[in-house]
Structure formats: C-alpha cells, structure tokens
Amino acid sequence: MNIYTRRAAAALALIGTGLAAAACSSGAEDDSTLTVCTNVPFEPFEFSEDGEYAGFDIDLMNLLAERLDQSVEVVEISFDSISSGEALNAGTCDIAAAGLSITEERQAAMGMSQAYYRADQALVVPAGSDVATLDDLDGLQVAVQSGSTGEAYANDNAEQYGYEVVAFESMGDIASALTAGSVQASIADLATWNEMIETATDLALVQTIETAEHYGFAVQKDDTELLDEVNAMLDEIFADGTYAELYEQWIGEPYTGNLDQ
Amino acid sequence: MDTASEAAPARGRMTARRRRRLVRGVQYAVIAVVVALLAAVADWDRIAQSFLQFDIAADMFPAVWIPFWNTIVYTVLAFVFGMVVGVPIALMRVSTFAPYRWFATAYVEVFRGLPALLVLFLVGFGVPQAFPGIQYPGGVYGQVAIGLGLTSSAYIAESVRAGIQAVPKGQVEASRSLGMSHTRTMVTVVLPQALRIVVPPLTNELVMLTKDSSLVFVLGVTASTMELSKFARNELTDTANATPLLVGGLLYLLLTIPLGLLARRLENREDQR
User: Taking the model in full, what pTM does it have?
Assistant: First the structure.
C-alpha cells in the first residue's frame, strides 16, 4: 500500500507544481503590448505570410501601437466573436481590426472608431459556374462568414432570391468549401474577394453588391481613451498623406481623398 | 482450404474448425475485394496531389512544434484541473452527507451534459462579461485549464466514483474495525486502490482531452498560443492544399497512440492480478 500512497503524494505534488506554473505564466494584460483581435485570412486587410501578420489593418495597428509606445500582438479569433463584441468586452484583446463594418448594433455593443475604408459586398462563384447574378441563386447554397455584414445581407435577401445561407468561420473555409463544391456561391466583402480570386484562380467574382458600408476599428465599450487615440491617429494619417500611401499600397489604386468615391 | 482439409483428421471437432476457417476465408476475400475496388476507383494522382505534397509538409516544420507543444500543454493543464476538481467531486458522490451527494450529482450532470465548446465560450466570454475585471491566472492557459477541465472533471469524477465503489467493502470494514476514521479509511485505503483501478479510463480521458484541445481556437489564439488543429487549418488556407491536415492528424496520433498503448498495457496488468 505504501508505494501507492507515495505515488498519490507524487501525483498531488505534480498537480500542485502544474497549477503554480499556470498561475505564474504571464497574463494577456500587459501595458507594453497592444493586443489586436482579428480573423485571417482577410486580404488585403489582414493575412499571415510566412508566420508574420501583414495587411492594411495590421499596418494601421502598428501605427497606433507606435503612437502608444506599445507593440502589436495579434490574437486570431472567430469573426463572430469580434463582431458581436464579446471578444472585446471579455477582455480578450484591446482593439479589433478585422475589416469590421460600422453598424448600429456594433456601435451599441462596442466603441467604434471613425470610418477608414468604404466597403461593398460581392457575389463569388466557382469558375465556370452558370450563376451570373443574384437572380440565378434559386435553390443553391450560399456561403457567408459567420457574424459578417455579408451574412446579414444574405439572410435579408434569402427569401427574395430563394437560396440557402450557410455560415462559415473564416474566409479561408469559404474558399475551401467553394473549391470543394459543397456550396455553389458566396457573398462577402468585395475588397477581400478581389484579392483572394487573384490567387484562387478557380473562383470568379460575378456581381458587385453596393451596400455602402464603412470599416471601423472597435475597442471595449467604455475604453474612450483608446478610442480617442485611434480617431486621433486616423485624423493625423488622413491629413499627412500616410493613409493615402498605405491605401495605394494595399488596395492597389490611388486614394481619391474621399472614402466614398 | 485444401491444406486445411488435408490436415484435418476425421474427427467431429474438426468440422467446426473447418467451418470457422471457411467463414474467416470469406471475410478475408471480402476485405481483399473492397480494397481492390477502392484502389481501382480512387484517383491516386489526385489524392497524392491533395494530401501528399512533401514540400508543403516540410514547410510546416519546425513551426508546427509550437502548436504541437501547446496542444500537449492545454491537454495536461485541463487534465490536472479535471483531476483536482474531479476526485473531490467523486468523494462527494459517495459521501454519507446528503447535500454533498446532491451537489456532486448536479455538478456531474451539468458538466457532462454541456458541450465542451459551450463551456469554453462560457469561461472565455460569459464569465468575464458577468464579472468585469476578472483575470484568469495564466491568461488563455488558465481559461483552457478551466474551460476544458470543467467538462473533463465531470467524466473523471464518474470514473473515480466507479473505482471507489469497485474497492471491496471488506477493505473498508477491516480498516474501520482497526479503528481508522472514515476519512482516514477513504484517503489511505480506498482512494489509492480506486485511482489505480481507474487508470485505464483516465488514460482514455487524456486521449479525449488531447482532441478536445482543438476547440481552444474559439478563445482567440496568438502565434505563440496556437494549437495543432488551428495551425493545420491556417496552413490549409495558405497553401490551398490538404497536406497540412494530414500532417496535423499524424501529429495527433503521435500523441494519442502511445497513450492508447499505455492504457492497454495498464489494463492487461490489471487483468493479470
């Protein structure tokens, strides 16, 4: 029996050290890092390349971190956790930069910054598909990203066009599902599709859907301090031309000086 | 079949064996036909192209070792939490004090009944919103230990309870008659034997947890806290190829197969006693 009690004691000691180690390792809250919630891939705004995160949003977050004398740490999380506000309000990260359109619901749930990009939706199908417009979607399955404005648009119009909405966790999953043929079309943000179909040649963008949305960054609901910093940063780079430079670099066309043109 | 009939002396017992051999032979034949059919139907070039791109697999190394290690860490943390909570719950389940039994029963029913994903969401998003400013020790590691550990503790509690009840009553009676208190009997006589009995089911629980650690991505993961499934899925997206899924799957098996073998060995050792 003795050996078992000794073993039990050893197991308990192990458990104790494990808990102590867990308690000691550093937490997410740290003044020197700006934790940024995002969902990749969402080209050209955020994507990972050789283990590094890059994109329009990531560059803007780096500018913000520079201003705050912090460094960016990217937290990958499902988009619906971002768009519902739960990731921010649970303290998973300081700010969300995820090609997040400003909506009334999101303004109520989180602190939303001023607009920094004008976004529309697009209909994408596998290359060679018969679908040319929304009118051709009757009886088909349409992929959307869970929690996105594309999902909201698709749900609002599902009855009119007679398709079925299928929600996916990331844009990468949608691209895989389209290629594999498990869905026949997708509605999601235009800028991202434009970028993704350049590499995924087996997909085709067939219709632009003008929804006139605007992307904004989101912070925890009462974090007005960080929200003021984000807005001040955006004001500054709109004025000094940094924004126009980044816009041209990532979107691939010159900035007109007005988000909506 | 021929060799079998030649070797078979004319004894009544042998007909049964021959029949058994025939049935077995048919089963082998069916398997051979199915495999041959699959081999003929499958588009091997296409399969190789989707799953066996060695350069893509090679590119995953050494980066894949960080998520691989995290998968182990998440599993161990959740298991430790599950043990620390589950064993006391098991003791409460067999307690003579009724309120303990009620609490333990309710606890087991709730956390065995809730999907692990839902519990993770509750721990990660529900609790912090209900109690603003709450900090889990170890950040995401603490969240995982609790989120997966709660579900696990319910299963562990049930296994350990079965183990406690499997310890012969005579042991308790003997200890009690020697003047040991009820608690002393439990801690020094029953529990050590019970834990030994439940090592095989607990190993199974560890295998389950290894796979459940793939749910951690819902809490939000950084490059340094990413686990194996999320990593493999990201690689799938980046490369538009399924090879990373195969590599990720093999790495899970690298963890779970030794655990399964260990469980079987422990079980066998138990049988021999």
Answer: 0.79
